[in-house]
Design a protein that fits this description.
The protein folds into two domains: 226 residues, Glycosyl hydrolase domain, family 43 (Tachylectin-2, Chain A, 5 Propeller); 256 residues, Tachylectin-2, Chain A (5 Propeller). The strands form nine sheets. The chain has a four-stranded antiparallel sheet with strand order 1-2-3-4, with no helix packed on it. Strands 5-6-7-8 form a four-stranded antiparallel sheet, with no helix packed on it. β2 and β3 form a beta hairpin. 4% of the residues lie in helices and 42% in strands. The radius of gyration is 24 Å and the shape is globular. It has two helices and 34 strands. The chain is mainly beta and 525 residues long.
Length: 525
Amino acid sequence: MIRDDEGTFHLVWTTSWTGKTIGYAYSKDLLTWSEPVAIPVMADEPDCKLCWAPEVRYDAESKNFLIYWSSSFTNESPEYWRTYATTTTDFKTFSKSRLFFDPGHSQIDASILEAQGNFYLFYKHSWQGNRYAVSDRLAGPYTNSSPMITNDEWEGAWPMRLGEGYVAYIDRFKSRDRMGLWRSKDLVKWENVSSQAKFPPGTLHGSVVEVEKQLLDPFFKARARDLAIEPPRPILEGFTADPHAVVFDDTYYVYPTSDKPGWQTTDFSCWSSKDLIHWKNEGVILDVTKDLSWAKIRAWAPAMIRRDGKYFFYFCAEQKIGVATNSAPMGKFTDALNKPLISPSREYPGQAIDPFAFIDDDGQAYLYYGQGNLYACKLKPDMITLDGPPKRMTPRGFNEGIFVIKRNGLYYFMWSENDARDPRYQVAYGTSKSPLGPIELPPDNVILQRRGQSVGTAHHSVVQVPGTARWYMIYHRHAIPDGNGYTRQTCLAEMEFDAEGRIKKLDPLKMVFPPGSRGEPISNP
């Protein structure tokens, strides 16, 4: 983000793990923002795979805004990242994107500092550390790369002048602590001074803009009000995450991930309720250390569905997707294939995780899955055999945790954005007239995000109370107090639609059922 001479803030961002666009919005006060737009900066490059980590600078020489980012291409192996750029005066029309920087080796996360009469382009050597190249013009060319400043644990530098020297805020992506700070007096010798800096939890790869204090006062006041609100209690005991909720007959069921240190989970349990208030742990239904031959750990993000009286349990283990079956929604499930149903592949990039099964009104079943990319597969009637190759249908902002419902003939696709360890983990949605897309995004499509003490609010599922028009979202948040992406709690929120069928924003601080409430017993299963 930068601020121009007229006081307008311009923000650009990565829109998706893969794709040919970057995001853009502007604001005068940091509170009210323009409608986000996706700029198709690499639309003319058929083999472009991704557009990562864009930045924007104003070029006083050409009187243009310079936007630059990292891209790689599907027809190159091993993957090779370069920096590309476009220019604009109004953020409405853009020059044709061009190769901006290629030092002869793969690199990402370019960021430019003006200092000492030159411009310094800091970047991450893809498999090594951070360094910089130099030019006498913002528009380049940049040459004479410096020695390494950091080792390979760091990326996403934001260099800036501070006092009489220079600092670089850098994301230590291989560390749980993440954000760090490096300092130099002369841009030649650098030292790690991260121990002298303190960052809010979840801070990573960003930018720094100086603003007047009064501009931030509304943020601080709103933050203080929200932090004073006591969040609702979780609905399940202990640390659970990625809850998949479903209704069978007169009972609600939730199948969560059981949080363990470092996500090293090995089993899945079932919880049941008659009213969405009182929940009973029905015990383990699948233990990957005992019940699988092809995986022993990282049991994550399950999904359950019933067909013809049989229950199908889709789950992740070691970044693969399996399916187990049983004649009841709880009890002992058996691996249906003795092998993964879906495994990761170069042809379909991204982790093979977070399955979700859906049966349409015509009886056709689908399996959705993916992290970084969203894929959809048709399932054969046996529910354990794929009927054709996956179709990629990744919406802007998608990271993981797909969930699909159908309402009034319209398909609602919901997903989680950002990383699960990030306090900004949130739920967004889009709609389609087809179960295979394309997915259209409504304005302001984020429907659940952090507020007050409730952060990391995402990876959800949705249930409709049978015989009613009432819907509920079951999601996880970072545990309160002192939770993080490895210690989470399952929570409940009411989900409503407006007159046009748009999903209203949900409030993670709102109590759903007050004391003494009957909850939502099912009267018409």
